[in-house]
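Lab notebook: predicted structure, single chain.

Context: the supervisor wants predicted structures on file for every construct in the current expression panel, including those that have not yet been purified. This is the next one on the list. No modifications to the sequence; it matches the entry in the shared construct table.
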Amino acid sequence: MDAPVITIVEDELIVAEDLRQTLEGEGYRVSGCFDTAEAALAHLLESPPDLVMVDIRLKGPMNGIELTEIVRKARNLPVVYITANADEETYRRAKRTKPQAFLVKPFNPRTLLAAVDLAFYNFSENQEAEDILQADALERKASSFPVADGFFIRAGGRHRTWPEYCTEHR
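Prediction complete. Output recorded below exactly as produced.
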C-alpha cells in the first residue's frame, strides 16, 4: 500500500501547484489537481482519494460546498476546505458539511501540513471504535485511521501505511 492519496480541487493554478509540491515533498501522493468541481466530481466518485482538499469558491456553476455535498452522499471522505475569506453564511453552510479542517489562504507549509494532519485525525475520531486499529502502545502519539484498502498510522510526524510501520518497528 502506498502513501495517503490526496486530491486537490483549487482553481488558482499557483495555489494548487504549491499544495501539490508541499504535499508530495512530505510523502503524500496527489492523485490529481482539478480547477472546477465538475472536473473533479467523476474522479472523486470513481477513484476516491484518502482525503480531498477543496476550495470553497471555484470557477463554474458548482462551488466546493456543493461538490462536497454530492461526494459525501456516495463516499465517506475526509475534507479540508480551502478559503481566502468566507462570509458568515458561506462559513455556516460549509460547516454543515462537517469538514475535518479548514485551510485559510494565504497558508504556509506548516499550516498546510497541520490542516492535513488534523483532517486525518478528526476523520479517524469519527470512525467506529472497533474499526480503528490500535497503534503500538510504545509509540508516542501514534494514531491510526481506516481507508478503503487498509490502515494508515501516524508515527514519527508523518502518516505511514500499516505494513511500512510494522517493517520500521521490527
